[in-house]
Amino acid sequence: MVVRSHDFPDPAGQQHAIPYGVWDEAANAGFVNVGTDGNTAALAVESIRRWWHLVGKDAYPAAARLLVTADAGGSNGYKNRAWKAGLAALAQETGLEITVCHFPPGTSKWNKIEHRLFCQITLAWRGRPLTSYDVIINTIGAVRTAAGLTATAVLDQNTYPAGAEISDTQMKDIEGRCLTRHDFHGEWNYTLLAVPRPAPEPEPAPAPAWRCDQQTLNHPALTGIDPRALTGLAAALQIPFAVHREQRRYRRSGRSRQRAAGPGHNRKLDLTDHLLATLMWRHLNLPAHVIATLLGASRSTISKATNLTGTLLAAGIPLPPAAPPPGTPLRTLASLRDYAARHGITITGPPDPADTPP
């Protein structure tokens, strides 16, 4: 009979078998999960899962830890992310602390399973064509030795597609919460925890650039108008302001705005900030760099904001009458603070050297 070696896949796409073995050294018992799909990390983890549920938990009901020795490469290799992710899930599912010790690269034949289980399976298969899954399962199950070795085999017809990816974010979470690397060659020796560590506290958000709040700046002494008028102006400018932004984006990119996924947006000043900057410039004749300090923006951003808002207001939105401006010019943040303090307004913020224009 002409047969193919196991090393050469059948180009006709006929059935193939992938045996994943577990050898219990204490009981001298083998368990082989024969997969029929992809040789992936998911199959390797499922083989351990099946051994535990079908054999291990009854044989060792008080077990709290599981030691797995594995090769350095392949679907259960030490660099395989899906292998670690699958074991992390299995540890939490079973309540077992799973320690993995990989044999160094090039030394997989040192693994005792090769000399105690697979060699006996190879002897049982010797000279016998593996023509069906039944033949494979029954032949493995019939393995017995004078030293007391027994073997069990089950057929695994689940689908294990290749190409499953574990993202950097997922891997970072596994490393941080579910995995403890050993001091000696932690890349090869590590433990998956049955109970993940608590998630770390989120890193504090970077401190924003200092800025004065809008409520403080919306004062007649600073804007020259009644504070209630600011809301009406913002409502009147909302549509023209949004149209201008959309047109600018379209001119830059040649298409309508595409909102990016996730929170946040890149906007230094909102419409109320634009109005406050324009009103303070109009009423107090404040330099752009002082307004920029108040609003936590750059000098050029303030110049663009006042030009744009002034243009939109001039297009047909009347401003309420303004109060008389102060008699003394305000050219620095320090002089503005003194002026504001005389009107009961407290402006805190950076030290006075920030007043210096760039």
Concise structural overview:
This protein is α/β, with parallel strands linked by helices. 41% of the residues lie in helices and 11% in strands.
Structure in words:
The chain has 358 residues and is of the alpha/beta class. The protein folds into two domains: 18-192, no CATH class; 214-246 and 269-355, no CATH class. It has twelve helices and seven strands. It has helices spanning 41-59, 81-94, 112-125, 133-141, 168-178, 214-217, 220-223, 229-253, 271-284, 288-295, 299-314, 333-342, and strands at residues 18-24, 29-35, 65-70, 97-102, 150-156, 179-181, 189-192. The strands form two sheets. It has a four-stranded mixed sheet with strand order 3-4-7-6. Strands 1-2-5 form a three-stranded mixed sheet, with helices on both faces. A hairpin with a 4-residue loop joins strand 1 (18-24) and strand 2. Helix 1 (41-59) runs parallel beside helix 2, helix 2 (81-94) packs across helix 5 (168-178) and helix 8 (229-253) packs across helix 9 (271-284). The radius of gyration is 36 Å and the shape is elongated. The model is unreliable at 256-267 (pLDDT under 50).
